[in-house]
Write a structure and sequence with these properties.
heterodimer, A: 345 residues, mainly alpha, two-stranded antiparallel ribbon, B: 407 residues, six-stranded mixed beta sheet, four-stranded parallel beta sheet, 17% strand, globular, BCAA_transport_permease (chain A), transmembrane helix (chain A), cell membrane (chain A), transmembrane transporter activity (chain A)
């Protein structure tokens, strides 16, 4: 191995790791606020990327119909679960979120073909469609059982994962897609060929980490999320809207997932089931951070990306084994080094 | 006295219950007999040939199975004056599911033959079911191990896709002819890749080419930079990528991005339009050995498969849209065409739905001679349950985003 190969592998690992880092942030966010180990996180990547691919092809992505169905379903669930909250202005807000917004997006995708508006419009539209799915999924699948044990929530998450993967196959078919690159320019630095797309990925990751930091430390919504994460019962006792926190967390997770999806779509082929493996690797990053610390998760996820890149060079046959075996020493170290606190149930 | 009374009571009650039970048993069995009679009555009225399919329309091999499912509406609906009914089940690319599907089709639907499955691992498991239940099976997976070496068990198994080694030889011969001395192989890290590694190692050795690098990757990998750097470091004269469907595009795109300019070969598993769509301009000049069906329109008119393949392509694209046709669906079409030829022969000896008919169908399949299908001309024999010769493969090059036949 020479320096050139070493540098290229590092670069490849960091770019992949940045995507894992984005997802790891979303995983920790969802877990902290709702205690859900959010397995379907990866599905948002596939949905985001493939929705963009379909819009680019000039087709109406079926995800937008799914969004309308989910919206109606979550309106029904909301009215059934908390009829008292949803009166007057509450009802207006609910209908705006669950009925009007999805239909608006549907009209946009059907009536305003994106080709004339360029790439940015398609990207924003795809991300919007997938982001809105997040809170709907929370309302339909999790809100009712928000106080259940972590295991129950995990099982519900597995159910959502299977449902979304099946829908993905039905919507997008078994073959993958690629989208056009955002920037065709690339920078030649010695042997390193830095593509514009990878700069975008790194840039977005950095911006998102900063944005999350500001959101949690400077905004009221962010502080409510932190409070819910620190002590769910306490947050409820002082009257914080913990259901809304859950929905915000899911919206953020879906947003991050969709963004990661549209970012990697020009770099690699995305399949209906691509998200799961990417999500698993992000999960390793989140585990390294103990499902708590955002900066450690970013470092951990990038480490996973770099190790993956190097092991695919040295021994491509055992790449996945090497990456997932990493979990064992890390879990051992974590379970011996951290003070064990019994989970309040 | 009292004791006796009680005992009498108990006896009576048991007797009563027994009577009730007997009554219900009789009623139930009458009902059952009536239903069965009704069913057999229907059967007798329209004695049809039932063919089951167990294919992978979901799971990792869905891109192979979905074109098969889409082709079923184009299958022949009758043969030798009997109606054919096609019953399709999805095995989710899973071996256990495939076996239980096959058993279900045989036990519950009493099928006369089964087409399936889409992948090699599932098809290998079905060999056991075929020989045990004595039902002829036609696999649409590619590994030669499904029907070779021919033995007592595989006697019930047939297979329509060309053997891998036919394609591997075509690639190695083409490499040797264009002057390559060294080659690298990039393939999946699973049993599919293992099969190709073995076939390519053999074929390259025969052609006098040295295999200098072997790299593996997974279908859903988002980056293969590491593998590609290793291949480029070995500097081979040609690279062979053995993968199925759109995942085969990623290594090729990365190779081109990293400046590899020498010839790249793909295998017949990529032969669908999605591959061209995803690969884009990085696929220009790629060599692909495949069945003639993919370039049917470019075949000379003298080619016996041309009209059949063109007819299939036309009817498929009329139903599923232009550019939707894939070679995988045509393998199932070939299985259906073989059955269409064999059923009239078997009908002379037995009635559908009987073990005799299934045995006759197997014998008829084995003696098919000179049957043109979409992928070539089939000549079955006792030892060859695939039946293709070199007419079942052509070398194709990708030019301007289209498949072009190499003369």
């Amino acid at each position: 191995m020479n320096t050139d190969i070493f540098l290229i592998l590092c670069q490849d690992g960091i770019v992949n790791g940045a995507v894992y880092a984005l997802l790891a942030l979303a995983l920790i966010l969802v877990f902290a606020v709702t205690r859900i180990i959010f397995l379907p996180q990866g599905e948002f990547i596939a949905f985001g990327a493939l929705t963009l691919a379909m819009i680019e092809e000039g087709k109406v992505p079926p995800t937008v119909y799914l969004l309308v169905v989910l919206g109606v379903a979550s309106a029904v669930v909301a009215l059934w679960l908390e009829p008292t909250k949803n009166r007057g202005w509450g009802l207006v807000g609910l209908l705006l979120e669950t009925i009007v917004a999805p239909f608006a997006l549907l009209c946009l995708t059907v009536w305003l073909p994106s080709r004339e508006f360029g790439l940015l419009y398609s990207v924003v539209l795809s991300v919007a469609i997938v982001t809105l799915m997040g809170p709907f999924i929370y309302r339909v699948a999790f809100q009712r059982i928000a106080d259940a044990s972590i295991l129950t929530l995990l099982i519900a998450a597995i159910g959502v994962h299977l449902a979304l993967t099946g829908l993905g196959l039905y919507f997008f078919g078994p073959e993958g897609s690629r989208t056009t690159s955002w920037v065709s320019a690339s920078l030649q630095l010695g042997a390193l060929n830095i593509s514009g797309q990878s700069t975008w990925i790194i840039g977005v990751t950095v911006v998102l980490v900063a944005a999350l930091y500001l959101f949690f430390s400077r905004t009221l919504s962010g502080k409510i999320l932190v409070a819910t994460a620190v002590n769910r019962l306490g947050a409820r006792l002082v009257g914080l809207p913990i259901d809304r926190s859950g929905r915000i967390a899911f919206a953020a997770a879906a947003f991050i997932g969709a963004l990661a999806g549209v970012l990697i779509a020009p770099q690699t082929t995305v399949y209906y089931d691509s998200g799961f493996v990417i999500g698993l690797k992000a999960f390793i990053g989140a585990i390294i951070a103990g499902m708590v610390s955002y900066p450690v998760a970013v470092v951990g996820a990038i480490m996973v990306g770099v190790i993956e890149s190097f092991s695919s060079y040295w021994s491509s046959e055992y790449k996945e084994i090497i990456v997932f075996s990493l979990m064992v020493p890390i879990l051992l170290w974590r379970s011996y080094s951290s003070k064990h606190v019994d989970e309040e149930e | 006295m009292k004791k006796n009374e009680t005992r009498y009571k108990i006896d009576r009650t048991t007797e009563e219950t027994q009577q009730v039970r007997e009554g219900s048993v009789i009623r139930l069995s009458t009902l059952l007999v009536l239903i069965l009679a009704a069913c057999s009555g229907i059967d007798a009225a329209t004695a049809e040939v039932k063919i089951g399919l167990t294919i992978s329309t979901t799971g990792p091999a869905a891109s192979l199975g979905i074109p098969v499912r889409n082709s079923i509406s184009l299958f022949p609906t009758e043969a030798g004056g009997e109606k054919i009914r096609w019953i399709v089940l999805d095995d989710a690319s899973d071996t256990a599911k495939g076996v239980s599907n096959a058993r279900k089709l045989i036990a519950e639907e009493n099928v006369d033959a089964v087409i399936g499955s889409s992948t090699t691992p599932v098809s290998l498991a079905l060999v056991e079911v075929a020989s045990e239940t004595r039902v002829p099976f036609i696999s649409v997976a590619s590994s030669p191990r499904i029907v070779l070496p021919m033995d007592e068990k595989r006697a019930w198994m047939f297979k329509t896709p060309q053997h891998d080694f036919v394609m591997a030889d075509a690639i190695a011969e083409h490499m040797a002819k264009s002057g390559a001395k060294t080659a690298a192989l990039v393939t999946f890290g699973d049993s599919y890749g293992d099969g190709w590694l073995a076939e390519m190692t053999r074929a390259l050795e025969k052609a006098g080419i040295k295999l200098v690098a072997t790299e593996r990757y997974a279908r859903t990998d988002s980056s293969v930079t590491g593998q590609v750097l290793k291949v480029i470091a070995a500097n081979p004269d040609a690279v062979m990528i053995a993968a199925s469907g759109t995942p085969a595009a990623l290594p090729q795109k990365t190779l081109r991005e990293r400046g590899y300019k020498k010839p790249i070969y793909q295998n017949h598993g990529v032969a669908n339009t999605d591959f061209l769509r995803v690969g884009g301009k990085d696929l220009e000049g790629t060599f692909v050995p495949t069945g003639p069906m993919l370039v049917a329109a470019q075949l000379p008119d003298s080619n016996p498969t041309k009209s059949i393949a063109l007819d299939y392509v036309k009817r498929y694209e009329d139903t599923w849209g232009p550019g939707s046709v894939a070679t995988f669906g045509a393998h199932a079409m070939d299985a259906a065409l073989l059955l269409e030829k064999a059923i009239p022969v078997a009908l002379k000896n037995a009635k559908p739905g009987t073990p005799e008919f299934r045995a006759a169908l197997r014998d008829a399949l084995e003696t098919l001679k000179n049957v043109p299908v979409t992928h070539g001309v089939v000549n079955m024999s006792k030892d060859d349950h695939n039946g293709f010769d070199n007419r079942a493969r052509v070398m194709v090059v990708i030019e301007n985003g289209k498949w072009k036949l190499l003369q």
